[in-house]
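Final report, Chapter 2: Outcomes

The project's central promise was a pipeline that accepts a single protein chain and returns its three-dimensional structure in a standardized token representation, suitable for archiving and comparison. That pipeline is now operational. To close this chapter, we reproduce one record exactly as it appears in the project archive, with the input sequence first and the structure output second.
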Amino acid sequence: MNNLSILNALYLRRYVDEVVVDLDGTLADNRHRLSHIENEDKQWGKYLSKVQKDKPVQEVISKINDLSETHKIVILTMRSDQTEEDTLKWLRKNDVSFDELIMLPEGHWNVKDCEFKERKLKNMENPVIAFDDKERNCQMYKEKGLETYLVELKAEQKIKKY
């Protein structure tokens, strides 16, 4: 195979195979703002106002950036689209490679994350890999045939195949 054929194959593969990656708790360490939504009186405004202060999950970002050379990267998040500008700034600041950002439309808080993500997954061309921090989402991705990775943010950042 000559160099041109290899480049064409990589180009075509990039736009056929997709990697689905979550944002909060996966690319971004959002633990510092979880206290605003963990009780019954959820304070979404305060929670969302602090997205710029999230620390990057470098291990995941490195894997995603490597995969971006041969795959389309789709960030699929339950983060409200009212934070789109701050989210894009954070992604640029932390050098996250991606091709598409799918966010929850403002005001749709009653949608379950797994249902939202499964619905969006149906509109994708060929999702093959997924990264998420929630087991229920990983289970859904695995059932759909995706190579799936659970991201656990505890004392140390860890990715494990689900």
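Archive annotation: The chain has a mean pLDDT of 87.
This record, like all others produced under the grant, will remain available to the consortium after the project formally closes.
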